[in-house]
Structures are given as C-alpha cells and as structure tokens.
Amino acid sequence: MGIRRPAISTAVAAALIGSLGVPIVAGTASAQDGATTVREDFDGDGYQDVAVAAPGATVGGHTWAGYITISYGSPRGPDPARTTVISQDTPGVPGAAGDNQVFGYAMISRDLDGDGLTDLAAVARDYRPEDNVSGSVIVLWGRETGISGEGSVRIGAPADAQVGDGITAGDVDGDGHTDLFMRNGDDYDYHDVLYGPFGRDGVPAREQQVQVYSTDNSINSTTAGDFNGDGIDDFATFYVYENHAEGGKLWLGSKTGLSTVPQRLNSASATAVADFDQDGYADLATRIFANGDTEGTEEDPGTVKIYYGSPSGISQTRVQTITQDTLGVPGASEKGDQFGGQLNAGDVNGDGYPDLAVGVPGEAIGSLAKAGAVVLLKGGTSGLTGKGAQAFHQDTTEVSGVAEAGDVFGGSVRLLDMTGEGRADLVAGAPGEDLGTVVNGGAVWFLRGVLSGLTATESATDNPVEMGAPADKALFGENLSGGNGPGTVIP
C-alpha cells in the first residue's frame, strides 16, 4: 500500500527551496543527556563528531540525490582537515545516487553493533510520481580511522519497499544494546522494532512488529527516552492527517520489549528529550501545532511545551509553556518566527542539567525575513526556564557571516561536546545560506559551550564550497545527525 501522503516532485521540491518554509513533518529525535546518554563518536577518539546532510545536492548528475559529511571533533572543535563526504556513489555504499533520493533525509547516530564506536544510520528516500514512497536505511559503520563507505549495509526490508519512516533509536528492552524503530515494509499500519546488536551484515538480533496506525494518520515525529524512570527506554510517536494534528502515543519499553498498548499523548511538531530537572525521569520538549493546524506552521510564532516525566510516563499535568514572550527569553513572539522549529538537548554549561537549543528559523533580524536564530534555554532544579536564556544569529558579534533574508539560521540544531571539555557545544545549520553565486548552498556554525552557556568567541563555520563538495541548492545543514530527522525543507 502506498504511503498516505503525497509524494514530492522535483518541481514541488524546487518551490520549497524557494520558500524555505517549515514542513508538516518535523522529524525524529533520540534521547539526549537524559535517560540514555548518547555519545556521537564515530572514530572513538573521545571527541564527539557530527554528520551534516545536504539532501538537495546534485550528485553524479542526479538532482536531489543528496550527500552526508562527517566532521570530527578536536580540542578546537570540528577539524576541517578531517571532513569526509559520503554519497550513495561512494565506494562500498549500497545502491547508487539517483534523482529525488535525498540521502540523509533522516540520520540516527548510535552504536548499533556494540563495538563501542558510534555508527550512522542514514535514510534515503525515493519520491516516485505514482505516490508510493520507497526508501532504504543504510548503516555506515564507525571505525577508528573514521566513517567511510567500507562495509556499509542496507538494513530492513528490500530496497524497493517502504523503509525508514519514523526512524528513531533507544534501548527498549533494557539489554544495553541499541534498538531501531521504523517502518520496515509495505504494510502501512505497522512499524518494526529491530533489536540490537546488529551484525555487520545488517541483521538485527530479533524483530517485533507494532501496529502504530488504526486510521489514515501519518507519523510526523518520533522520539525515545526513559520517561517512567525504570531504566528502559520508551518510544513516542506523533501523528498528522492532512492539515490536522492527530495527537500521539507513548509505547513503554520493558524487559521483554516494546508494549503494544500505547498511552495517549498530545500532538507535537518537533521533539527533544532530556531529564531537564534531573529527577530521574526523561522529559519531553515539543513544539506544538497552533490550534492543531499543521498548515499554519510556517506563519506560527512558535510555542514550546515541556511535558515532564513521571513514574507513569509522560505527565499530562506537569507541563510548562515557553515562548519568546516568556520572561528572560530574548526576542518577542512574532508571526512566522517558528520558535521551536527544531529542538535538541545537551548540557552546555556543565552544571549537570541539560539545556535546550531552540531553532527559530523564521526569525527576522531587523528587516531581514527568515534570517533565523537559535535560542538556548537552560535547565535546572525547576526544569527549563527563561532565566539566563541566550540568542544567537549571524549578526551576533563574533559569529561569522552576516544575516540575510532566507538564510533560516537555526533550521537545524545539535548540542554535543566536540571539544572534549565536558560541555555541549552548538552546531547550527542555515540551509538557505547563499555562498557567493551559489544559491541555497547552506552552511553550519559551531559555537563553544562554556561555564556561562554558549559563546560566539572562536566560533567557526563550514560550507560545501570550502570543502569542495556539490554546493548549488545543496541545502547543506538541512539536517544534522543525532536523530533530528527531516529539517526545515524536506516534508
């Protein structure tokens, strides 16, 4: 059965590039600095690394083929001398680059085979005119010499099946191995849990099928975390249908695997997970759909809600609401800001409480529409608040470049410790960044975490022109590894 939302044509994709708006589908997120500590260290040198997707890039003459770059951490942050570019034409990677495959559509970074090195599961999609969407999940194995195409495998159902929708990762049976949750075949109503460890042939230890749909809804976001504090991760799925938000479901993990009887959750456009108040329960940060309307996302000022964990799971009574009108939060809540368009968690100042990076891709800087910004909300004993919040954009002192209309800085965000100092640093994407004559080439920025929060001092940037990769309309920085899923353009 075909997926129950329309395929995207190249013409539609081109129109989306022009608008760089926020889509219905916000993507996935894995637990960060909460129930499950996720280290993203592909080469095992102690410095966290990051994968950056350029899903709009032309590869081998194929439009929207996409590629991924791997940037390795060092005491100075990302090491530009070690950046690796990987596409489906890279030797060892299954398949070949093709039109509309958007390699890097979603990326999950976890240790899948249990060797202590982080691996990268990358989704490639194939938008076909007959409204069927096929896809594949390709695992690039972590190595002490760094990730390459060598030995990479396709996991799940055959390449012509519908694979990879709603992908997220966690340990839902508590055995210490990473499990993947994703669509894994053409039966629309079901997703599979692929239990780790995975063999180097891509075969999981076992599989479990879960009926995630009972209506015509589509999954727009998934996430994982130990919300009830039992030491085992849980999965959450969120749904839309046409222009309506359709709520969510919480699937509790157990020693025997994922429960098949879910709890009801409120809707979510974007998600991040961490134990923001350090009470032993993972908490869920979400951007809400204003008035339950998915079509109004691009014009929405943006509201972030935090649902705190409890012994029974995600609480529906201990809920916190933060906007740009919240005391201490920089800026003001304005039409089209899209506050919370992307979310990611990590402990920036090293105080033991995770903080939340909030992408504000529609933020106007002066008169420059959709120039974009990132706001950092800080965690503490009371959870997230506006106290001490910070904002950064391309006109912030010491941030390289200048703000321009349509950059959508903050279109992707990631907090991880690339310098090895014990504090999370910010990686932020601006997929709409023009690079000289290159339109929508995209770029990413690195801001260091310090005791006071984030600092623009010694900030750095990278883009496909500088690394000699395909650049025109590449949308570099549209998506970052760690489970953020599709970014601000790809629906």
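(the above was protein one; protein two follows)
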Amino acid sequence: MSVHRLTKAQARRIAVRAQLLDAPRPTDLLTVVQRLTLLQIDPTAAIAPSADLVAWSRLGSAYRPADLRQALEQGRTLFELDALIRPMGDLGLYLAGAADRPSYDRSRAWLRDNDRFRREILDLLGSSGPLTSRDIPDTCVVPWASSGWTNNRNVTQMLEFLMMRCEVAISGRIGRERLWDLAERVYPADVVVPSVEEADRGKNERRLGSLGIARQKARAMPMEPIHVGDAGEPAVVEGTKGEWRVDPAALVEDFEGRTALLSPFDRLVHDRARAQELFDFEYTLEMYKPAAKRRWGYFALPVLHHDRLVGKVDATADHTASVLRVHAIHQDVRFTRAITKAVNAELEDLASWLELDAVEPVAT
C-alpha cells in the first residue's frame, strides 16, 4: 500500500473536517454523535457541561440539551456507558466480550465473593427498577477496598462492574444521579454482537473516521484510546516524525473553514501530542490546578479558526447576573480583525444559547 504524503495544512483540515468543525454545520444531534462516536460526560460546567458544549460547537444555538436527554431516555438512539455517550448503532462493539469483564484478578475475586450481592441487585432492579444507587441496599459480604474515592462504595462499585458486563445499564438521570435498570430493558433485543477481535477492529475504524488522522499506537489515555491500530491507510506528515494512519474517505481537497469555541474535552484537542504536532497548539486542563498556577484559566475554551487553533478564551457563565463573563482571551497567534470579529460572534452565540442577556468583555 502506498504511503500518503500530507502537508500539515492538509492533515489539519482532515482532522477538522472529521470532527464536523468545518462549514457548513451538521443539522441534527444523532448525526453528530454517530460521526464523533462519543460525547464525554464531565461534571465540570463553568460554562456548560462538556457534552452539551461539544454539541453546540457543531450545531450552534439550534441545539438544545433537552435533545440529548430525549435521545438517551425516550428515543434510545444514544446510550451512556462508562461516562461516555455513544450511538446505539455502536452498542454491539461494546457488548463484545462483556461476559469476561472485569479483567483484573482482584476485581474478579471481589465479584465472586459478592455474587449474592450481585444477584440481589439484579432481582431488585428487575422488580423495582429503574433506581438510583442510593435506593439499593448495601448487602455486600466483602467491602470494596480502595485508596481512592471508591473505597467502601460497594453499591456503586458493583453497579459499575455490572455495567461493564452489560447486565445493567443507565436508564436516565435525575440531575447528576444515574438511574440504573436491567440492560435488557434499556438496550434493544436485536443487537448483533461481533467477536472481540471484530469489535476491536470496528472500534479502531470508527475512531479513525471520527479523528481523520491519528497514530497507529499512542500512549494510554483514560476513558477512550487515541490510537487506531491498522485502520485506514499509512501517511506521513511534513515536519512530524513517524507514520500516521489516515481515513481514505477524508482525503478530499475541498475545505471551507469556520470559527468555533471548543470544550476543553473536545476530541480535536483531546490528544495533546497530536494537537502540538499538527496544530502547534499547547493546551492543558487547568481546572485541577491551583488558581495561581493557571496560564489560561479554569475552563479555557480552545479557539479554532478555519484549520488553525489560534488561542483560548477564559470565560464563565454567570446565570445570576445573566452574563457570559470573558476573563481573558489568550492569543496564540496575533488575531486579525477577521478572527476577532468571528470570536466575538461565537461568544454572542454562546451567550444566546445559554439564555444569558449579554457578554461581559475582558476588562481593559
């Protein structure tokens, strides 16, 4: 197979187009999630929850968070698994190998020691579900031991394992609390489940389709990998080392860019090494840092302008005062008048979508 030779600009445009951040915009939520393969759930919401911000970045103010809830809880076109929202059409890829989970010996032993506890939860959900974790009695025999926040959180830990095994599923939410039910009452009955090997290939192909260009192998990442194995075709990108994999369907020259404000968890910037190599863009999540050590802000939004990541916007939604407060705009490259105008337009649209009355600009 011949190796595709790409300029950095071509590689960036492939990545932007794959993430539905070019123009024109997509028009419906399901199309967005099917293409991106996932929306990440994160409780940090200085402006809005990340899943909603990612959808807004693609759909604009036409998107309503109620659309996401409806798709998850009534339409069942999407499902939630392990803090990620995915299209129901991908469910079979995640059911593959479920009976063999969890994979760690310690976790398997804990599950065996608490098999009666497991069966009691399944029986209770069968008769009374859906339920929150606080509605489920803790009857475990061997408590879950951990040095982290899960220590002795036996009901939650058992539910997490049963979710991994696809014996239970998340039926909906009450605020941030998950509602648990039997998987058979949440997932469709006619799901085709491939072999584990086929599922792994399918995941890699879907991931590459959503990223456009990625590394065959990459460092481990929490929640969702960033490598794509042998999916796609080999490519080299000028000014970068080693080989990439590129989605052949993404090798088109037409590109019409736009300006977008991105969630800190957006997949375009999630792989920090790729963002640095292709976009010359440095970024770190800073909500976990002390305020004095932050360079860009608690929940800084990366700024995409056409095929370049050009800066970060440090902003907060103040619903009490009904303003979107812009604390700082960090320019990685000097903003032209066109970039400034486009960023301001996106801030106005963001405020409108959040139902805030105004944008409070950077203090001068």
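Reviewer note on protein two: The two ends are 56 Å apart (CA to CA).
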